[in-house]
Design a protein that fits this description.
With about 300 residues, the chain is an alpha+beta fold. Helices cover about 25% and strands about 30% of the residues.
Length: about 300
């Protein structure tokens, strides 16, 4: 509250003793003649509205009889909530002490659980802000699907930028993969695939000519496999090799990673239901945002 004190009675007609609070917000004479006033500096402190902790809505709990460490149990539950979209990107986790109190855990245990998700790239600690959820890592099952479809299924809002779309003579490697003659013309398409505006992968595909229309607008609007299906091509199987290596300076700049950062690599030759090779792809993925998921079975 601001108290305005009437100045010395320099002009008659004010009607208020000098130095006493005026009943109105401003002394009449001061309003008329612009005389100086004394304002007592008593400011109201602004208090930020507390942000609701999204973890309150989660059914978190730990099994103390389990051999699984308590921090890992909590970490897995939070990771699951992030992957299901219950904890959305940008959400702020509450105070570690409050979370520890709700679960009956020690603060170091909760801190260890949160740090495990920070190390996975699912959470980030921001000074002056707190612990914040970032975009979840994409886990891609090893099946014949496109990155575009996988991102869309994960709620990641895929976006494509075409870097190259041209006809080139097939190299020996491309010719062998597509079962064509070396030097024959093929479509070479290079695309940067993003999710939530962040680079995820750089895709390089070689496609035999005459299969389908490959203009930039279509390539940026949807995935390559969708275009193939729309053109009447029935995808049947693929041969794929997954690897890893360090990013070059060019690759790092494309994907928003430092030079030397780990990248996942994939080479894939895709066949239609007639056994014809319809695509040879050579792709690089950010290991910090992407992983391949395997299901292994015991051979009887």
């Amino acid at each position: 509250m601001l108290s305005i004190l009437c100045p010395d009675k320099q002009v008659p007609g004010c009607g208020v003793e000098p130095g006493r609070p005026h009943p109105r917000s401003l002394c009449q004479d001061n309003r008329t003649f612009g005389l100086p006033v004394n304002i007592s500096r008593r400011y109201a402190r602004l208090v930020a509205k507390p942000v609701a902790d999204p973890t309150v809505q989660l059914e978190l709990g730990v099994d103390r009889s389990s051999p699984v460490p308590l921090y890992f149990q909590l970490s897995q539950q939070l990771e699951g909530a992030i992957e299901r979209g219950v904890l959305t990107p940008g959400s702020l986790l509450g105070n570690e002490i409050e979370l520890a109190g709700r679960l009956g855990l020690s603060r170091p245990t909760v801190r260890q659980a949160i740090q495990a998700l920070v190390d996975k790239g699912l959470l980030v600690r921001r000074r002056g802000v707190g612990t914040q959820v970032v975009h979840s890592q994409v886990k891609r099952p090893l099946e014949l699907s496109s990155l575009y479809d996988d991102l869309e299924a994960a709620g990641q809002r895929p976006e494509t930028r075409v870097a190259a779309n041209t006809l080139v003579p097939a190299s020996a490697e491309v010719a062998a993969a597509l079962a064509i003659g070396e030097g024959e013309e093929v479509h070479r398409v290079e695309r940067l695939r993003l999710a939530h505006g962040e680079p995820m992968a750089y895709l390089c595909n070689h496609i035999p000519t005459g299969l389908l229309a490959l203009d930039d607008d279509r390539l940026e609007a949807t995935g390559l496999y969708r275009l193939m299906r729309a053109a009447g091509i029935t995808l049947h199987s693929a041969r794929q090799v997954v690897g890893a290596r360090a990013a070059t300076a060019v690759e790092g700049e494309r994907l928003g990673e430092p030079e030397g950062a780990p990248l996942l690599t994939m080479q894939r030759t895709t066949f239609d239901d007639k056994g014809r090779a319809v695509e040879f792809g050579s792709h690089t993925y950010r290991a910090s945002r992407y992983s391949f998921e395997f299901q292994l079975l015991v051979r009887s």
